Amino acid sequence: MNTSSSLTARDVQCIEAARHWREGGVEVLDAPDAGRIVVKGQRAPRSAVLYRMLNALAWLLDVPYLKTAPRLGGPAGQALEVGRLRALHAAGVRVPQVLHVDGQKGYFVMQWLGREQLADVLQRGAQGALALWCEAGDELLRVHAAGQYLSQAFARNIIVGENGRLGGMIDFEDDPVRVMGVSDAQTRNWLDFIHSTLWAPLPQDETDASLDAWIAAEPPAVQRRFAHACCRLAWLRRMPKHRRWGRDTIALQSAAAAAHRWLRRNRI
Q1: Nearest to 108, CA basis, from 116, 98, 117
Q2: Closest by alpha carbon to 248, among 168, 135, 155, 173?
Q3: In the 8-state DSSP scheme, what is residue 243?
């Protein structure tokens, strides 16, 4: 499949002279006419065995929203990501616009949203981090209101624009609805978001109030699934808090503590 919307022959020539995307990487280029763009090469196909094992474990533990959708890789993976980007863009979600697809040569081109991730802003404790965190949560709620969902709503996939405001969301190599319903996929978005952000030194009263408002604005099915997730995962708050255990452990403990507080505030 070869389609394009705004690239010139000079832009395509610049892309095809580059090398990194050919190894399945993501490459930022300054094209002659289109300006800064992102080129993403096809990744190698991946085995589905590990995904099946993880999903069997999620089923046994009764946490279906933690299932893992397979990352297909190859032409199928590229087609899936391009399709999801186009569907989300059409629904008004802030994602990169697809500018060009060349399935034969194994790459596609998308709009460049910005250099920095929300994770970077939180890591350095930048001024305005709370406002940006709230903006990202508001956008996630709008995504769900449009009947959509993200693949992995982690802070590393939330891009900050050059103006310091939310630029958009990236990374759609998998489609959660292949292994779960839409309500579970939207619930997983909230779990991803709080897990990847609440380890940061954000004011607890304000983050708790925002989380309450966001979940209260979701449809009843998502509210029920989120409550179920909090009940199943809140015990993880008892994990060690010491930084020597690494940020992943701290992040999990912080998210579980937030889940526990949400349950108490909502008398569940």
Answers
A1: 98
A2: 155
A3: G
Reported pTM: 0.93
> How many Å apart are CA 268 and CA 226, to the nearest integer?
11
The SS3 of residue 138 is: helix
CA angle, residues 130, 160, 83, in degrees to nearest 5: 125
Could you read off the pLDDT of 35-57 as tens digits, one per residue?
Answer: 999 999 998 877 777 788 888 98
Segment holding 30, helix H or strand E: strand 26-31
Place of tokens 């380890």: 199
pLDDT at 3 over 80: no
160 phi and psi, to 5 degrees? -100, 130
Average model confidence (pLDDT) across the chain: 92
Q: Are the C-beta atoms of residues 42 and 77 closer than 8 Å to each other? A: yes
Task: Judge whether 171 and 157 are in contact, CB under 8 Å.
Answer: yes
If you average pLDDT over residues 192-203, what whole number do you get? 95
Nearest alpha carbon to residue 107 among 204, 27, 187, 7: 27
Distance CA 134, CA 158 (A): 12
State the DSSP string of 142-210: HHHHTT---S---GGGEEEPTTSSEEEE---S--GGGTS-HHHHHHHHHHHHHHHHTTS---HHHHHHH
Contacts of 26 (CB under 8 A, 6+ apart): 20, 38, 39, 40, 41
Residues pairing with 109 in the sheet: 39, 100
Over residues 189-215, the mean pLDDT reads: 97
263/202 Cα distance (integer angstroms): 20
Pairing of strands 158-160, 35-41: unpaired
User: Given this model, what pLDDT does residue 4 score?
Assistant: 52
Q: Residue range 27-38: average pLDDT?
A: 96
